[in-house]
Structures are given as structure tokens and as C-alpha cells.
Predict the structure of Sulfhydryl oxidase.
Amino acid sequence: MTSSINNNAGQPQKSTARPLPPGMVLGPDGKPCKICTSFRNWKPPSSSTKPSTTKSNKGNDTSASAQRPPSPASAGAADENKRPAYCPPDVESLGRATWTFLHTTAAYYPESPTPTQRAHMLQLLHALPQLYPCSHCANDLGTRIQRQPPDVRSRTALAAWLCATHNEVNVMLGKPIFNCSRVDERWKDGPQDGSCD
């Protein structure tokens, strides 16, 4: 491991920090947090230099750009706010995936869980605020869990607690609330018209 030596050690450094773009969130380290910020608000500095490509003996391009799908610009993407599928998740896609996982897990949770199943579910839910990559999302969930602990007595109780908690977050974010009487239709059975069968 190498470190750079500051020749001006001990001297005050000029702040070169620029104002954050609207919607950009700082992580606990004080740096812009990709996983805490929506992709549409994440505007990394553009680079004017392009990486050089190297060719193997067989003529195959072995550069980093050849090992990933084409960029949206090269693929002719019209919507710059659309996140390419090969990119790491942003706060919105991570949130959708996490809520999908939690609601689906609740939909398949037993109606009469054993003490071990209840303990495992509580461990999962209490681990999220400790492990979730988006720090402010994790802190918010931790506060909500402390204020209103998860109800893991049954599948119905867990699904209702999770839906109410999700709706609290939706209200905070200005999103529409979900009709909690429809959790089984949404997360387990699908609509009665069979459109998901």
C-alpha cells in the first residue's frame, strides 16, 4: 500500500469543494454517496481522456470498455435519466429491490410461525438498519423499527406491519400509498384476472 506525501503538511488547505448538485446525498464519510442518491441526480465529472484499447494476438479487444456493454451514449439511448441495467444500483433501484424482497418474504411467511421462524424474521429486520448500504435510509428504518417494532406473530401481521411501514416511507418521499388490503394480490397471488399467471 502506498500513500502520497503532502509537501505542504501542516499548512491550511484551500477548499476546492463545489456545491452539491440538487438531490445529491453525502454519505457518513462526507463524500457523495452513489447508493444514497438517485441516478438522475448523480452526475459524475466527465473525463476528456479515453482509455486506450489493447488488442490480443487474436485481435480481440481486451480493454475495460470491451468487457462491459456499450454506454448509453454509444447505444443511442435517448433518455439520460434511464439507468443502464449493467450499472450498480442507485437509491431508487436498491429501494425497489429491497421492498420487493421484504414484501415477498412476508407474503410467504407462515401464518403460524415457530419461535425459531419469528426469531429469524426479527433478526433479518433488525439487521437491515445495520447493514443497508444507504446510510440515511438505514437510519430512517432503524428509527421506524424502534418506534413501531415489527409484528412477526403471523404472516398477516407481518405483511400489515411491512405495508404500513412502507407507506410511511412513501408519504415521506411524496409517493402514493399502497392499499394494504391488496398485499397478497401484489406480492403472492397476482391479480384475479390471471394477467400474471
Residues 113-189 form a domain with the Four Helix Bundle (Hemerythrin (Met), subunit A) fold (CATH 1.20.120.310). The radius of gyration is 23 Å.
